């Protein structure tokens, strides 16, 4: 079965009291109101749809040509000759010779100030020094300060685009590229995402500098939009490589699972109980050296600790169905333990190529999560250590779930599946990852899919909305 078919579900969110947005926010549309007519009306709809599809195809071709020209200019600026680099990537466990040697990759993707010239620098030994975003950008940033190159991804109310500076002050700045996340204010309000957007900005600000988390460099707003300026991670989604290879061998799965463990340890134990709540391959990007970067903190929330030192519970139903923990489905209140459950599901998917619970109907997925045990296939063969780790992470009783029991992340790191991992070397990114993306130059976007460059529907941020909601976006 194709991997694309295994992820029909979109992230879901049902806000509970005090954990979504203000009570005065309008209810979101469910997407099924207002159907088409029948007979001649239906024939007319089909005809219009065909015309729209043809027009969209022509627009996509024009956009692709424009993007190719812009990327060619970037490549020329970086001293890369014309032509397309091979898109082949090393299969996990095999030897891969990228089109750019590791030393060249460090130079071309770093520009002396990090992997794409933003917010951090990488020393020759692979260690990282963080530069504060305030050192790089003025406080009064605006969208016109950047030139849009192409879209990297789209969501329900946001778009991420590759950008460069409009007015670079040096040759180094001329080579820098960034990922700009653009959120539509009206859609944020309509979908009751105000609190989540604010949480995302604050948490990204607090965790910037961790080697396996995307770095927030700046945030700003205008009348219609909110903007998050992030470092550009050029390797694309880990999901794309999993789909390409069908599954990962155990050394590859161990490597990426270990980096995720370091992220969860940091979020849960050093950031006052931040629950990420949407761990999945699509939210893990690869940098130019094959290390993960966790992105999209839209569902993340700092839970804190109660008076007895235990984790504070929250009750929002959010996440992606295949990875949601049982306590979230049962609305029993959940904590950071949901991330350890999701890690177990993710490791299973790394090793087999598909999640253990899956169905076209999300309600059936929930039923499976609550009633079915995690069962491994006979082919491919999964080691006893890997199976045991997944079973301990995917324990329905969260009080017995690995990662959530006494000892926390240290117990996860001590599991036999991670035998041989040098955790200090991993954190310092001393070695390349098992999958090295074919990044040709700083700003290369060939590892990302092509998306339409304009939103079909655009909700207006009316004066009435501004009067009611501007206070929520103050100081963004």
From TrEMBL:
All copies of domain Protein kinase, residue ranges: 146-418
CDD domains: STKc_PKA_like
EC number: 2.7.11.11
One Pfam short name: Pkinase
SMART domains: S_TK_X, S_TKc
Binding site for ATP: 181
Residue spans of biased composition, Polar residues class: 11-31
Catalysed reaction, written as an equation: L-threonyl-[protein] + ATP = O-phospho-L-threonyl-[protein] + ADP + H(+); L-seryl-[protein] + ATP = O-phospho-L-seryl-[protein] + ADP + H(+)
Alphabetical keyword list: ATP-binding, Kinase, Nucleotide-binding, Serine/threonine-protein kinase, Transferase
Domain of life from the UniProt record: Eukaryota
Top enzyme class: transferase
The AGC-kinase C-terminal domain, residue ranges: 419-476
Annotated segments matching region Disordered: 1-131
GO molecular function, one term: protein serine/threonine kinase activity
Compositional bias (Low complexity): 49-73, 83-108
Protein family according to the UniProt entry: Belongs to the protein kinase superfamily.
The protein's name in its UniProt record: cAMP-dependent protein kinase
Classification lineage: Eukaryota, Fungi, Dikarya, Ascomycota, Pezizomycotina
């Amino acid at each position: 079965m194709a991997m694309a078919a295994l992820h029909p579900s979109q992230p879901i969110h049902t806000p509970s009291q005090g954990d979504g947005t203000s009570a005065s926010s309008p209810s979101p549309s469910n997407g099924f109101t207002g159907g088409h007519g029948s007979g001649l009306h239906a024939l007319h709809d089909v005809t219009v749809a065909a015309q729209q599809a043809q027009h969209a195809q022509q627009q996509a071709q024009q956009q692709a040509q424009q993007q190719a020209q812009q990327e060619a200019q970037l490549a020329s600026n970086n001293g890369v000759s014309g032509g397309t680099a091979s898109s082949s990537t090393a299969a996990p466990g095999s030897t891969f010779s990228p089109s750019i040697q590791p030393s060249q990759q460090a130079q071309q993707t770093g520009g002396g100030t990090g992997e794409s010239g933003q917010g951090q620098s990488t020393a020759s030994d692979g260690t990282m020094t963080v530069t504060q975003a305030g050192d790089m950008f003025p406080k009064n940033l605006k969208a016109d300060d950047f030139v849009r190159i192409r879209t990297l991804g789209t969501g329900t109310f946001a778009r991420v685009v590759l950008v460069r500076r409009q007015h670079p002050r040096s040759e180094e700045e001329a080579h820098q590229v960034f990922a700009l996340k653009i959120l539509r204010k009206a859609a944020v309000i309509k979908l009751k995402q105000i609190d989540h957007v604010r949480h995302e900005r604050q948490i990204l600000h607090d965790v910037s500098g961790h080697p396996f988390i995307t770095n927030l460099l700046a945030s700003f707003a205008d009348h219609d939009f909110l903007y998050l300026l992030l470092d550009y991670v050029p390797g694309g989604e880990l999901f794309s490589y999993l789909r390409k290879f069908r599954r990962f061998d155990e050394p590859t799965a161990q490597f990426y699972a270990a980096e995720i463990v370091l992220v969860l340890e940091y979020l849960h134990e050093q950031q006052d109980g931040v629950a990420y709540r949407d761990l999945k391959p699509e939210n893990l990007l690869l940098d130019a050296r094959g290390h993960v970067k966790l992105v999209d903190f839209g569902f993340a929330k700092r839970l804190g600790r109660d008076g007895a030192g235990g984790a504070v519970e929250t009750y929002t139903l959010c996440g992606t169905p295949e990875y949601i923990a049982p306590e979230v489905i049962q609305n029993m209140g959940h904590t950071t333990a949901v991330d350890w459950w999701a890690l177990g599901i993710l490791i299973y998917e790394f090793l087999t190529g598909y999640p253990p619970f899956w169905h076209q109907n999300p309600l059936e997925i929930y039923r499976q999560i609550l009633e079915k045990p995690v069962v491994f296939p006979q082919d491919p063969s999964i080691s006893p250590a890997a199976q045991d780790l997944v079973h301990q992470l995917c324990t329905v009783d969260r009080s017995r779930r690995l990662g959530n029991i006494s000892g926390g992340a240290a117990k996860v790191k001590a599991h036999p599946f991670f035998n041989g991992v040098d955790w200090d070397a991993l954190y310092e990114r001393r070695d390349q990852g098992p999958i090295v993306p074919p990044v040709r130059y700083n700003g290369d976007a060939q590892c990302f899919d092509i998306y339409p460059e304009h939103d079909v529907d655009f909700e207006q941020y009316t004066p009435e909305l501004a009067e009611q909601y501007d206070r929520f976006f103050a100081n963004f």
